[in-house]
């Protein structure tokens, strides 16, 4: 895809590269303060969290280990159902570890609420969540998200790890898709 195609597919830039990077530094500062003197394991949820994990990990000063999980949530169409399948589990035993789950976006919150329960059953010292983006529906789920980058409107977003049909993950900013891309006007 060339730049012109990319331009036509995007309806607008919601969060610029500069805004993303500034927010990640801010989140890293909070995490550094909260985990000072602790041994932290950050867990990225594949594939969407790849970009935020890479940037957040480099912005942190506390020593961290990194691990990854891949999950798929079943559901009709684009909505998640809360029924989650683990496609790739952690390589790390998290018993007595401080775990911070890093996620790209919380929509219904069902995926993360399942994931947090699953991790808590492994007896970590603590388990918290850092999500770059949060959509309005997330308020309906009683899930405590300690670190949130941006609250965004209920629109489908792409870029910086987020995809539409596996495309656009490599954009350095967050954008919204033009309706013609997903079959609208
Ligand atoms: P729930 O509803 O369980 O789902 O919180 C979270 C997962 O849904 C995906 N998701 C999106 N992916 N643009 C995307 O590329 C979006 O606007 C969007 N909204 C939700 C995402 O995989 C996330 O982990
Ligand atoms: Mg996705």
Automatic annotation (TrEMBL):
Main location: cytoplasm
Subcellular location: Cytoplasm
Transferase recorded as keyword: yes
GO molecular function, one term: magnesium ion binding
GO cellular component terms attached to this protein's record: cytosol
Cofactors, names only: Mg(2+)
Catalytic activity from the UniProt record: GMP + diphosphate = guanine + 5-phospho-alpha-D-ribose 1-diphosphate; IMP + diphosphate = hypoxanthine + 5-phospho-alpha-D-ribose 1-diphosphate
Entry-linked CDD domains: PRTases_typeI
BP GO annotations: GMP salvage; guanine salvage; hypoxanthine metabolic process; IMP salvage; purine ribonucleoside salvage
Cited InterPro entries: HGPRT, Hxn_phspho_trans, PRTase-like, PRTase_dom
Keyword Cytoplasm in annotation: yes
Protein family per UniProt: Belongs to the purine/pyrimidine phosphoribosyltransferase family.
Source species: Acrocarpospora phusangensis
Domain named Phosphoribosyltransferase: residues: 18-164
EC numbers: 2.4.2.8
Broad enzyme group: transferase
Protein name: Hypoxanthine phosphoribosyltransferase
Pathway: Purine metabolism; GMP biosynthesis via salvage pathway; GMP from guanine: step 1/1; Purine metabolism; IMP biosynthesis via salvage pathway; IMP from hypoxanthine: step 1/1
Keywords: Cytoplasm, Glycosyltransferase, Magnesium, Metal-binding, Nucleotide-binding, Purine salvage, Transferase
Pfam families linked to this entry: Pribosyltran
């Amino acid at each position: 895809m060339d730049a012109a195609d990319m331009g036509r597919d995007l309806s607008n830039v919601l969060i610029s590269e500069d805004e993303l990077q500034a927010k990640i530094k801010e989140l890293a500062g909070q995490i550094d303060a909260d985990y000072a003197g602790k041994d932290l394991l950050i867990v990225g949820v594949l594939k969407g969290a790849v970009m935020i994990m890479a940037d957040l990990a480099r912005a942190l000063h506390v020593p961290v280990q990194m691990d990854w999980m891949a999950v798929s949530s079943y559901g009709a169409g684009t909505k998640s159902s809360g029924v989650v399948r683990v496609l790739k589990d952690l390589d790390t035993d998290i018993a007595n570890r401080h775990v911070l789950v890093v996620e790209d976006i919380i929509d219904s919150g069902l995926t993360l609420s399942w994931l947090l329960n699953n991790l808590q059953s492994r007896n970590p010292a603590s388990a918290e969540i850092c999500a770059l983006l949060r959509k309005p529906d997330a308020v309906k789920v009683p899930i405590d998200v300690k670190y949130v980058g941006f609250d965004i409107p209920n629109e489908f977003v792409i870029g910086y790890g987020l995809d539409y049909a596996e495309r656009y993950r490599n954009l350095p900013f967050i954008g919204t898709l033009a309706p013609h891309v997903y079959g609208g006007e």
